[in-house]
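re: that chain from earlier
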Amino acid sequence: MSRLVLIICLISVSCAGYQIGGSKPSDLSHVKSIHVPLFQNDTLFVRAETYATNSVVDSLNRDGTYQIATAQSADAILKGRITDLDYSQVSSIRTDSLRSEELRLTVHLDWSLVDASNPTRILAKGRSTGRTTFFARGNLNTARTNALPDALKRASQSLSSRLSDGF
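^ sequence. v structure.
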């Protein structure tokens, strides 16, 4: 009987510090819900803004620190902009150094979290970057299109981490 009590005590103590979601930065402690309008797209990549917005919403939902809400019921509004899509060569074909075999896509997101009741008050802002590599075989345009959601997912995870954990 005493062993059962000891086991129950040890199990309950081992989970004492666990919490769901991140530990919010102190300046965002009052924010419970966030509205994410469609991101702006400064690139020539079609529909990149929808990929970015969906990726950020998915990342915030997965983190669980904030709830996604409508503009009328949110505590804060997350405004974002895709500023750059940079492609760089990682490796080339052995016989032709100008022809890429593997490319790296780097996505830059500029964002700001503003107070919903006072949109001139900026609660947090920053720049998040996501990178991915892909092979440039076959149709290069299709390869670039398929690589974009992965790079945006990585940038969105960085953004979500900054909002929920402060780093």
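The mean pLDDT is 89.
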